[in-house]
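User: Predict the structure for this protein chain, please.
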Amino acid sequence: MSRFTPTLLRALLLALLVTFLLAPETFEPLLRPLVQQNAPVIYAQGNLMSLTLQHLATVFAATLAATIVAVSLAVLVSRPIGAEFLPLSRSLVNIGQTFPPVAVLALAVPVVGFGEKPTLIALFLYGLLPIFENTLTGLTTLPRAVVEAARGTGMTGWQRLVKIELPLAMPVILAGIRLSVVISLATATIGSTVAARTLGEVIIAGLQSNNLAYVVQGGLIVGALAVLIYDGFSAVERRLAIRS
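Assistant: Here is the predicted structure, written as structure tokens:
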């Protein structure tokens, strides 16, 4: 198998995804067998491209917030001054994994109302753990000789963190962010149950009308996005690992 085959497959998947989002009616013959006679095949209650962009924006915002908080916590507890807060930090980031996203939505709606906000809260909490644990692993498993050499050159703690530790740990940190993004992409679909604009609208509409084509459309778009983003992060991680 040619070493270019994976790249070509990703390019083909991206092209199919863009084509479907811009001209979904092109795929109507493929989806027609999934619906009952005279039932609509292509989801038309909302623009698929718009829903996809809003879905990605929600995931990006929640992941960005989770990354800032999780990385900051991991940096704090990896320093001598903050080591005693490690158990507490682990307990905090585990909250999102302890409570199912549906439960978080149910608790958040009475406080912040319907829409995107409860979804952001659920995704933020759910994305903390993998980023925190990977950042902590990356910072605490650095080659001791490198860290000592940086200290011996007279670098301050902040300089070592920014110029040595974080760059060396970045491939591991990105692996945690990658995992968080992929989890959030799928989890964000439930946000439509509280009126958030996500691809969950398509899936929920399919379940309510017993339209399998709608369910397949929403599921395949989310799946394709997850594959492409996962591969994109993996490629960046490999490049950083080679450089470090």
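The mean pLDDT is 89.
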